[in-house]
Amino acid sequence: MENKKNIIIGVIVFVLVVYAIFAFDIPYKNRKINDGPNTIVTSDIIKIIEPKAGDTINSPAKFSGSARGNWFFEASFPIEILAIDGSVLGQGIAQAAGEWMTENFVDWSASVSFDPKGNTIGIVKFKRDNPSGMPENDMSVEVPVMFISNN
Fold it and tell me: How far apart, in whole angstroms, are the C-alpha atoms of residue 107 and residue 100?
């Protein structure tokens, strides 16, 4: 009887935890908001046109969008292509296409080579350039993608 009670309590706790995760949007705290068919917008700081969530990319991957000037430092910001486990598959730099010392949006583009190393899904991480190294200035946006091999 005590064992049955523990199983029921365990199931209830599990259901409550799963509910809390989705009710408080924990897995998607920094989720992208779809702003039309071709743009992903996040917190009014960066717009990513390419890739959209779920797109399939191959190497070298092309990226584009626009970001407010404070996302850049010296007209650039880093991009990482990650496996789902967080391991780095490729890194590159996005370059501003115009004057970046502004509060307005500035177009940017990048091409990043990567090796999927057998992974079929991963993440493209667009990182705010943070030359200060201070954690409170770190920001990033992640877009889930799928990989295809160049073989």
Answer: 9
CA–CA gap between residue 52 and residue 141 (Å, rounded) = 12
**Taking Cα atoms as reference points, which of 128, 107, 112, 131 lies closest to residue 30?**
128
- Tell me the two tokens of residue 10: 């365990």
Summarize pLDDT for 12-69 with one digit per residue, the tens. Answer: 765 555 455 444 444 434 444 444 444 455 668 999 999 999 999 999 999 999 999 9
pTM comes to: 0.71
CATH 2.60.40 fits 32-147, yes or no: yes
C-alpha to C-alpha distances, 115 to 7, 112, 130, nearest whole angstrom: 45, 10, 26
DSSP line for the chain: -HHHHHHHHHHHHHHHHHHHHHHTTGGGTT--EE-STT-EEETTTEEEEESPTT-EE-SSEEEEEEEEGGG-BTTEEEEEEEETTS-EEEEEEEEESS--SSSSEEEEEEEE----TT-SEEEEEEE---TT--GGG--EEEEEEEE----
Instruction: Look up tokens 């943070």; give the residue.
Output: 130
